[in-house]
Amino acid sequence: MINSQLGLKLGANQLPYTVPIHPILVHFTLGLFITAIAFDLAGILFPLEKPILKFLALRVVREGFFHAGWYNLLAAAIVTFFTVALGLFEIMLANPLANVKSSWGLGVEQTMILHGVGGVLLLMAIVSMTVWRGFQRYYWRRDHPRQVQWSYLCVGILLLGVLYVHGTLGAQMGDEFGIHNTAANLLRQGKNPNLLLR
Amino acid sequence: MVFFSYSCDLVGYLTHNHQLLEVSWWNLFVSAIAIFLAVIFGQLEAGLANAYPAVKSVLNLHSITGWSLSAIIVAIAAWRFVIRLRDPLRIPPAYLGVATFLLVLVSFQTYLGTQLVWVYGLHIAPVVEAMHRGIL
User: A5 touching B, CB under 8 A?
Assistant: First the structure.
């Protein structure tokens, strides 16, 4: 086992700390990536929004949406390195029940492999998108009123779907298999969380 | 998004990059809307959760902080809106101070919510199953 090699002291949740960190970082990756695409979409559809924004008396410069789209994506790319690194560390320490099937009919091994490999691929995808977006912003479409290409936006929206599937696999690892969950692991050891977690 | 909005304001303040101030505003604007979805779903799922006695105090605190945060974020976003309206190229240090308080509160709320799921196991299949079997 990896923990005996590293000499880690693991708690009931099979981690050297009280709560898993990957699920927290995931919220940064998702929040930043989704809004990055949403802001770029808002920038592209700006002519349609104009009357609504005017009605709301919101002062909007079209460029502002593209700034937000770019910086949110850049931050998403940076934070996702940490999300994936912590995810790989915590998945190595997972010690789940082997005989359960998820609601998608997948076993725990399959789910873990798909989520692990998928995570690395998604990191590569997000970094590639950032490079693509950077070229549009600083070279190809520098003075273009519509800073992003439709093709970029379409790939982005497609990636949102991939992230949804990928995130659901990850959620199943926590919610259905109980990986790294203190109460679930205590129950497995025949202990009562209600008495121990007071 | 509150975190990112704050980071942008801070870096924008230090580097005089006014693009980042605009990014900060839009992130805070979206978060002021999104928090209501979070609170409504949180309340719904908290109501459905079979909270055993040890969980109750953390769950109550998470609920109170959540509702408070929705009001606080809207108030701070409104202030941020006025700041942007008056001068979109500058951010007053007083705002950064109050935003730091908001950041601490959001971190606290995240910690409580994380505990509910990962320590106490609310809505986690093996824990729910144990409750159905009367073990917990």
Answer: no
Measure the CA–CA gap between B46 and A100, rounded to whole angstroms. 26
Residue A175 lies in a domain: yes
Nearest to A63, CA basis, from B63, B26, B1, B33: B26
User: Does A189 reside within a domain?
Assistant: yes
Total domain count, chain A? 1
Domain-located, residue A29: yes
Find the domain containing A67 and state its range: 15-196
pLDDT digits (tens, 9 = 90+) for A140-151: 998 888 899 999
Tokens 């979206």 — which residue? B30
Q: Is the Cβ of A170 closer than 8 Å to some Cβ of chain B?
A: no
Reported ipTM: 0.89
Residue from the list B54, B124, B136 with its beta carbon closest to the beta carbon of A178: B124
Domain ranges of chain B: 2-132
Report pLDDT digits (tens) over A69-101.
999 999 999 999 999 999 999 999 988 777 888
Does residue A9 belong to any structural domain of this protein? no
